[in-house]
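Fill in residues.
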């Protein structure tokens, strides 16, 4: 379904499918992404979040982050330490760019990184919704 021949057609459909997914799905009812996985915390994210928390960057890193096997900073534990009991993010306004972009249902990551897309579909209802709609459209052609 995510083959190169379909890429341009899929990319044209993503904005509408993204909107439809989030009209039907409320992330606050799920938060599986925050409960099970970690975004990458890039240098600008670390600077912005540590400033917001009035922490030195080194202390922020020591307190919350670890290096993963790819050399990226990720949270030390799951669920994310910034996820509240109400599934709201306590640093939402300054969250990492990976969190802001997730689940990538409105950008080319969905097509260009099929392995990540399929993994995300296993826990994110929005990704599953978009893939299901793309599959339905392909079957109706």
């Amino acid at each position: 379904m995510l083959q190169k021949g379909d890429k341009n057609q899929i990319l044209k459909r993503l904005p509408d499918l993204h909107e439809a997914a989030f009209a039907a799905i409320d992330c606050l009812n799920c938060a599986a992404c925050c409960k099970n996985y970690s975004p990458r915390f890039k240098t600008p994210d670390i600077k912005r979040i540590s400033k917001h928390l009035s922490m030195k960057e080194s202390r922020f890193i020591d307190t919350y982050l670890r290096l993963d096997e790819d050399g990226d900073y990720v949270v030390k534990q799951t669920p994310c330490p910034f996820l509240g009991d109400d599934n709201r993010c306590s640093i939402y306004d300054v969250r990492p760019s990976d969190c802001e972009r997730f689940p990538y249902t409105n950008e080319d990551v969905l097509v260009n990184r099929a392995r990540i897309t399929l993994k995300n579909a296993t826990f994110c209802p929005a990704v599953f919704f978009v893939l299901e709609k793309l599959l339905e459209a392909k079957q109706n052609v």
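The helical segments are 7-24, 32-36, 43-52, 57-64, 97-101, 109-112, 114-121, 125-139.
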